[in-house]
Amino acid sequence: MSLSNPLRVLQVNASDVGGGAEKSALNLFRDYRAQGHASWLAVGRKYLDDPDIFEIPRLAPPVPWARLCWRLYGWSRPLEGLPGIRRLRYLLHTLAGGPAEIARELGHEDFNFPGSRQLLRLPPERPDLLHLHNLHGNYFDLRQLPHLHRQVPVVMTLRDAWLLSGHCAHSLDCERWQTGCGACPYLSHYLPLQRDGSAYNWRRKRRLYRRGRLYVSAPSRWLLDRALCSILAPAIVEARVIPNGVDRTIFQPGDRQHARQTLGLPGDRAILLFTAASIKQNPWKDYRTMRQALVEMANRQNKQPVLFIALGEEAPSEWINKTEMRFVSFQRDEQVVACYYQAADVYVHAARAETFGNTIVEAFACGTPVVATNVGGIPEIVEHGRTGFLTPLGDSTTMARYIADILDNRTLRQQMSAQAVQAVAQHFDLGRCVDQYLAWYQEILATRQEHKR
What we know:
This protein is an alpha/beta fold. The chain has helices at 20-34, 64-75, 85-96, 98-106, 145-151, 198-209, 221-228, 256-263, 287-300, 334-343, 358-365, 396-408, 410-427, 430-452; strands spanning 8-15, 38-45, 53-55, 129-132, 154-157, 214-218, 236-241, 270-275, 306-311, 318-320, 323-328, 346-349, 370-373, 388-391.
């Protein structure tokens, strides 16, 4: 992107460090700045020591009646034995928590974050454009969207389906997000509700979006298609699919044996890898199917012992016949993560829901074939039989068979490795992603300028 018109871009995300959404936003933020644009990132939780990253103030001013309720709650303690007092104290305790506690008690999503209105004042200069990513995580007020888009154009990149539903980040097999939510089968899933207020939340979001004007992108056609038939659709001025990009200066093919030596991994075992946050408990990953696939592999794998590495979980190692399941804690250093991909023979990605699959692209960039579940945006990345294999949801037998096919066929593994690296260079390079966004920003700003004339 030419610097004839350097831009001032403020991005917004729940955090600057974390999973795929955080990594994608941070990559864009850094690359814009490296190209000479004024680039800032506003987050709900800041961990990195970077002067261009700002933490959004989240605390709402105290509510006078909440303080009164807290005093009454304390004064009522000696009366606990009287009829009805326990229920009254519970009500006072809820009211004392202020709007946030009341919202939680009702199953309503909490949007009471006044700092959202001050977003454009956080950078040293007024941004030309606002780029929003994950807006859930108790830091952003969706009610401020109309105010913000009246000030500057607002681009929104969907990272999951929370904006389309009454509370959940992924609806799995539930289609109620299209008709109004309510009777939610997944209340405990992220973002959990204490009681079923999903229908109210859905209607509330729909009202907000009707006053919106957003430029919406998604990393996969699958996710964007869902957005275009959802409550968000009336707010969408223009929509594009822009796949996430991977930094190929970090994630690149490397010598397998050298990578294993660097990480202290055995050189004489087949190594399988999977990486995700909280692998065992993550509701969007399918640890049960993956583990069962390893059991089935272990029962028929007599030639070579297998090491399965679960990167992103702290737990004791397990053995299934000759197969070891080794758990490795989350690694913040991307060079170390790339080394794990380079050390692996196959990257295994079992999922129940996936909007894109950043880790799959990272594995491809390192020349590692993939066996993954055929859900969400994954089939837009994995070319079945060419860069890896796709398996039906919950099918451990097919997953085990495809893993064994790659391990047992060196020629197939090498072909898939070369084709995976080529696919990333053609479709998922970070520079390509950055250029697509910058070009779109310029188009949006030019159109806005035309409308002002």
